[in-house]
Amino acid sequence: MLKVGDHLPAGSLQEFIEVEGDGCSLGPNTFDVQKLTAGKTVAIFALPGAFTPTCSAQHVPGYVAAADEFKAAGVDEIWCVSVNDAFVMGAWGREQKTAGKVRMMADGSATFTQATGLTLDLVARGMGLRSQRYSMLVKDGVVKTLNIEAPGKFEVSDAATLLAQAKA
């Protein structure tokens, strides 16, 4: 399982791009995690699924609201990672008004999530293999802080906790 001091695993995530630019075409674009985090400080939070109650009502809105504070604390980007496809993440991002604040990164086949060891088995609930709820601060591809929630909890992966760690 991923821990503080580890490099993020090799892999890719997809993001649905609304506006063409910077070499990105409209629609789903694939990004190499290691290349995308190189030389940057990235706040990453992961959650079980798009459009789910806690994720939609608390987790994503907290990071959207604190986006400017994260930038002021030296964070270059904020990513929301979920085991959903890029189309779903794009639609959820539009609903949550994340544009310019939080990058909605899709891990459609759960390959990145499996590589981190932070999976959540929700097969019995009809949701398949998902991501645990967590947050982390990553600097130049290395995990500096990692906050993993207990099953069914939302206590340590919130924006306020990670923001305090970014400011420290």
Distance between the termini: 25 Å
Detail the poorly predicted runs: none
Q: What best-fitting shape do the alpha-carbon axes yield?
A: globular
Q: Count the strands?
A: 9
The name of the CATH architecture is 3-Layer(aba) Sandwich
Q: How are the strands ordered across the major sheet?
A: 2-1-5-4-3-8-9
The CATH topology is Glutaredoxin
Helix proportion: 25-40%
Radius of gyration: 14 Å
Give the number of helices: 6
Word description of this protein:
With 168 residues, the protein is an alpha+beta fold. It has a single domain (12-151), classed as Glutaredoxin (3-Layer(aba) Sandwich). Helix content is 30%, strand content 30%. It has six helices and nine strands. The strands form two sheets. Strands 2-1-5-4-3-8-9 form a seven-stranded mixed sheet. A two-stranded antiparallel sheet has the order 6-7.
Properties at a glance:
168 residues, alpha+beta, Glutaredoxin, 7-stranded mixed beta sheet, two-stranded antiparallel sheet
Compact description:
The chain is an alpha+beta fold. The chain is 30% helix and 30% strand. The protein contains 6 helices and 9 strands.
Write the layout of secondary structure elements.
Layout: E1 12-17, E2 27-32, H1 33-37, E3 41-47, H2 53-65, H3 67-72, E4 77-82, H4 86-96, E5 103-106, H5 111-116, E6 119-122, E7 128-131, E8 134-139, E9 142-148, H6 159-167
Parallel strand pairs: 3-4, 4-5
Antiparallel strand pairs: 1-2, 1-5, 3-8, 6-7, 8-9
